[in-house]
Each structure stands twice: as structure tokens, then as C-alpha cells.
Design brief:
The protein has eleven helices and no strands. With 232 residues, the chain is mainly alpha-helical. It has one domain: MetI-like fold, CATH 1.10.3720.10. The longest helix is centred in the first third of the chain and has 34 residues. The N and C termini lie far apart (42 Å).
């Protein structure tokens, strides 16, 4: 218990003292996970909408099952696949992305996208089917129809963004495998926590954990505030 309180106190000291390494790790965590979440929304929202509206799509149950399976993808498996792709002898090794933030963004994007797709499908399927026919009867184009359906389901769609971000900001396996935890380049809060724990610096590891939880809470609070504001 004493170590726990020491960690909380050290977290405050690290932030208030403006420790450059801690702030750098924190901002890098936010940048990588934030970009991965944005990309997952840009891909997952249209894909989830397509799956939700294509009720007679051949093999639709198979694709939905694949999405649901993807929502539980083990991060280490994703890290392994990305590492094999970008390793020097891999098919994409010429890009030189291994042990770079780009590889970490890609791995986190793979983890977050199924989450966004799955929740989008559920959100749109919960809408009254008659709403779609009513909008089409009023002359709405396909693009207008989709936009209006998104507006109607905006609250659960914001939950998809929250879930997507939550699935990657706390992820460590894939980031460690493809990023390498390089100081000043790919070290983020989760991988830094693993490093400090291995070193036996439990107070600093707890401090970084407190910062990680605070960052996750701040982002999710902002998204939840936006979601609840839309409700009223």
C-alpha cells in the first residue's frame, strides 16, 4: 500500500515538475493511439454501415462473425503479423517501418477497427427498419440516407469511438513487438510501465500507470461529455 501511494505522489511530481521524458512518452501515447482511433473510425464507420445495410449480402453471417472475432483479437497476434510484414525480410520490409511509430499505429489500427465496425453494425441495426424506407420515400439519396442514419444513431456511434480508443490506449503487446520500446522514438506509457516494472522501479511504474489512467479518463470524459450533450 505504501508503494502505491508513493507511486501516486511520484506521478504528481513527474507531471508538475515537467519531466521532459514523461511528457514526451505521454504525448506520444496520445498521438499514436489517437491517430489509430481516427483511422479506425474512417474505415470502420463506412464498413460497418455497409454491413448493416446489406441485409442480403452473400456470406453476411460469415463476415459479421469475422468482425466479432476481430473484436477479441489478441494484441500479441496482431503484433506478430505486423512484425512479419515489416521485418527486413518481410514483404513490406522495404518501407523501413519496423520499430517506428508508424508500425505501432498500424497495429493499433488493426485492433481498433473491428471494434468500431462491430458497434456500428449493432447501432444501425437497432434503428427502426421503417425509418430507412420512410427516408427513401421522401426522396433521400443514398448519401443523404446514410448521413441521416448516422445522425439518428450518433450516441452509440460515439460509443464505438470510445471503445476503439479504449482498446488501443491500454494495449502493450503489439506496441512492444513492433515498436521495440525505443527511448525517444517508440516508447509509450504502456511499454514504459513494463520496462520500469522489470527494473524493479515499482513506484515509477505506478506513477506512469496513474498518468495512463488519467489520460484515458480525460479523453473518454471528453467523448462521453460530447455523447451525453448530444442526448439532450
Amino acid at each position: 500500500m505504501r508503494t502505491l501511494w508513493e507511486g501516486v505522489w511520484q506521478a504528481l511530481l513527474l507531471l508538475l515538475s515537467g519531466d521532459p521524458e514523461v511528457w514526451s512518452i505521454t504525448l506520444r501515447s496520445l498521438e499514436i493511439s489517437g491517430l489509430a482511433t481516427v483511422l479506425s473510425v474512417l474505415v470502420g464507420l463506412p464498413l460497418g454501415t455497409w454491413l448493416a445495410l446489406r441485409e442480403r449480402l452473400p456470406g453476411r453471417r460469415f463476415w459479421l462473425s469475422a468482425v466479432h472475432t476481430g473484436m477479441a483479437l489478441p494484441p500479441v497476434v496482431v503484433g506478430l503479423v505486423v512484425a512479419l510484414l515489416f521485418w527486413r525480410t518481410g514483404p513490406l520490409g522495404f518501407l523501413g517501418w519496423m520499430y517506428t511509430p508508424m508500425a505501432m499505429v498500424l497495429a493499433q489500427w488493426i485492433l481498433a477497427t473491428p471494434m468500431v465496425v462491430g458497434i456500428t453494425v449493432i447501432a444501425l441495426q437497432q434503428l427502426d427498419a421503417r425509418l430507412r424506407w420512410q427516408l427513401l420515400g421522401l426522396g433521400a439519396s443514398q448519401r443523404q440516407l446514410i448521413w441521416l442514419l448516422w445522425r439518428e444513431a450518433r450516441l452509440p456511434l460515439l460509443s464505438a469511438v470510445i471503445a476503439g480508443f479504449g482498446s488501443v490506449i491500454s494495449e502493450v503487446g503489439a506496441s512492444l513487438m513492433v515498436g521495440g520500446n525505443l527511448r525517444g522514438r517508440t516508447r509509450v506509457l504502456t511499454t514504459a510501465i513494463v520496462l520500469e516494472t522489470r527494473r524493479g522501479n515499482f513506484a515509477r511504474a505506478i506513477a506512469l500507470s496513474v498518468i495512463l489512467m488519467g489520460l484515458a479518463f480525460a479523453v473518454n470524459y471528453a467523448l462521453t461529455w460530447l455523447q451525453q450533450r448530444e442526448e439532450h
